[in-house]
Write a structure and sequence with these properties.
- This protein is mainly beta and 114 residues long.
- It is 0% helix and 53% strand.
- The strands form two sheets. Strands 2, 4, 5, 6, 9, 10 and 11 form a seven-stranded mixed beta sheet that branches.
- A hairpin with a 5-residue loop joins strand 4 and strand 5.
- 32% of the residues are buried.
- The mean pLDDT is 94.
Length: 114
């Protein structure tokens, strides 16, 4: 019910925009976010956006580099990733829920070459 896309191979300094389309629930009223799991590392929070005021929160290391946004009419959340670095290489997951991240999509792989 959460379908992520937009990953791929990009050179360092490049950009990608990830999309996650939600279906089947009132996702327009849900907290939505992105997480990632880098090779050999634990999954970590990347960004989230609230549905009420659209407040956003980010992992410190991606502030100013990534931007999360949502289109409630399309039940879609986006992650614009700029100035990508090799350390951003990971499987990126979208997640959603009314108060916490109860629902998870499959990942989309982002690979940043140096």
């Amino acid at each position: 019910q959460l379908q992520a896309s937009g990953g791929g191979l990009v050179q360092a300094g490049g950009s990608l925009r990830l999309s996650c389309v939600a279906s089947g629930r009132a996702f327009s009223r849900y907290l939505m976010g992105w997480f990632r799991r880098a090779p050999g590392k634990e999954r970590e929070f990347v960004a989230r956006i609230d549905w009420i005021a659209g407040n956003t929160y980010y992992l410190d290391s991606v502030k100013g580099q990534f931007a999360i946004s949502r289109d409630n009419a399309k039940n879609t959340v986006y992650l614009q990733m700029n100035n990508l670095k090799p350390e951003d290489t990971a499987l990126y997951y979208c997640a959603a829920g009314p108060n916490r991240f109860d629902y998870w999509g499959q990942g989309t792989l982002v690979t940043v070459s140096s």
